[in-house]
Amino acid sequence: MDHDLCKLNLVFPVTAEDQILDFLLDSRPALPGFTSLRVEGHGAGFENASPREMVRGRIERRLVFIVLDRARLESLLAELLERIAVPNLAYWVEPVEQFGQFK
Q1: DSSP letter at 46?
Q2: What is the model's pLDDT at position 55?
Q3: Coil, helix or strand at residue 78
Q4: What InterPro entries does this protein's entry cite (predicted)?
Q5: Given its phi and psi angles, is residue 26 left (phi above 0), alpha (psi -120 to 50 degrees) or beta?
Q6: Beta sheet of 59-69, edge-to-edge order
Q7: Torsion of CA 38, 96, 72, 62, to 10 degrees
């Protein structure tokens, strides 16, 4: 297992998508790349849901995940907290056992 790699997951409102993606694309040192997805949140926390979302019982969100060095993780999170004011942004970190590409 490569203990130096982890996966950062960010989940945030659709309205913050451009702000978050621009932040990640402009981050220095440059990130190795990331993936963004359209997702839906379920469960508690519907205070800010639109009427449509309340009827459907799920909230539209965006998910970004990044595999990066643990050493870079803390500085990226600190910079995100300092530069981006996004309410309802959630994150979690997972260990990465292996990472590679088939060519």
Answers
A1: -
A2: 65
A3: helix
A4: DUF3240 (IPR021634), N-reg_PII/ATP_PRibTrfase_C (IPR015867)
A5: alpha
A6: 35-41, 59-69, 5-13, 90-95
A7: 10
* Structure token pair of residue 100: 């590679």
**pTM, full prediction:** 0.85
CB atoms within 10 A of CB 24: 20
Domains of the chain: 5-95 (3.30.70.120)
64 token code pair: 């970004």
Tell me what pLDDT residue 1 has.
46
Cα gap 77→82, rounded to integer Å: 9
